[in-house]
Amino acid sequence: MKKIILTLQTSIKKRFVTGISIMLLPMAVLASAGYILFENVIHSFEEAKTEAVNEINSIAILQKLILKAAMPANDYLIHGETWERQTFNSISKEVDEAFSTALGMPFGLQEERSLVMSAQKEWWTAKAMSERLLTFHNPVGNAAASKDMKLLDNRTYQIVNLLERATKLAHDELHMEISRAYALKNRVSLLIAVILVLGLAASVIIAIALSRSILNPIRALEEGADQFAAGNLSSRIALLAKDELGHLAKTFNAMAEQIERHEKILEDLSIHDGLTELFNKREFTRRIIDEIARSKRYKSVFSLIMIDIDHFKAVNDTYGHQAGDEVLKAISAILKRGIRTVDFAARYGGEEIAVILPYINSEGAYEAAERLRKDIEAFKISISKEKAIQVTVSMGLAVFPDNADTDEKLVTAADKALYAAKHAGRNHVQIFKGLT
Fold first, then answer.
1. Average pLDDT in the 224-235 region?
2. How far apart are CA 331 and CA 303, in angstroms?
């Protein structure tokens, strides 16, 4: 990014006062008007920053809670634990409160409020769906419940998308404020032109000095605003002037940093699992499709490993679900340390984890899986200050395109191999061999 760096110690106000001592009274009036315009743009940017950051913060909290609210019903269908109902009720109250907080904010655009209200209506529907799912008496393996869960997932993604659109509108509103700053810049330029005309010969030097001390910083602000408006959220204005425009540049940079940080937070939340910090199932689906396309393009292979923790329900029943969470986090950490940079690990659901190994055939994948299995088996997982346990995992692996020609068939093949590993006594790696 091109940077214009100016270091000005004297404020715009003092520079205008110096000019007034030489210029005529009309010039002083025009200079005062220019100062007022500068104050207005600073105030406008302050308001825009506060509103944009508050809106993005509120929506970010909502998105995180919405994604979190979908988990109790999903976990209930996997484990059948009735305490998930209480967990959902607690999260549901947080979501309702977050919506109340968001809708109580003074949105700059009515469409933003409408999107949040639409998301709230979708949430009410999703909430009713979750409550219905949590009333199933035999949820584990229930086909009807699984079908309803998919509908709930789709509803959750619709809510997140509505909130993402509201966030985009907040950014658009900020861009509108920047456009207003452009208009003010033109007015200031016109004011300086009038001063040059009225200053005559004796005022020419002062007028030029004033124009340089103002237009150059405005040009730096304009260039930075153009890049930000074009989508470059890392754009910053390197303006070192210790005056009103310097304060404006500082305010702009602070606002840009907050927006960029929240954008990164939202992006991270949308692709990662909150407990294990692995990628989530939605990102896994996207990545495996990309990997298949790359494999077809370059006529290469890749392997998929499906991993399931042995006797995980017994861990939860014996030591509690917090211990189960610690086991999931510990195994995820071992996997992240043990795979290559180009590999991809995601929490597929419950205690099941999927690992994609690009450019590796079944022999190489088996060696990698065995190494990971042994690392997990040898690791003692601390579940409390006094207690550490050891767990094992079963793994099933399949290779594209040797074992399947689509992503769904590949996952099915790896799952069949995983089932065979469980059937063979667990703590075992099984390669798919056309199992039924």
1. 67
2. 20
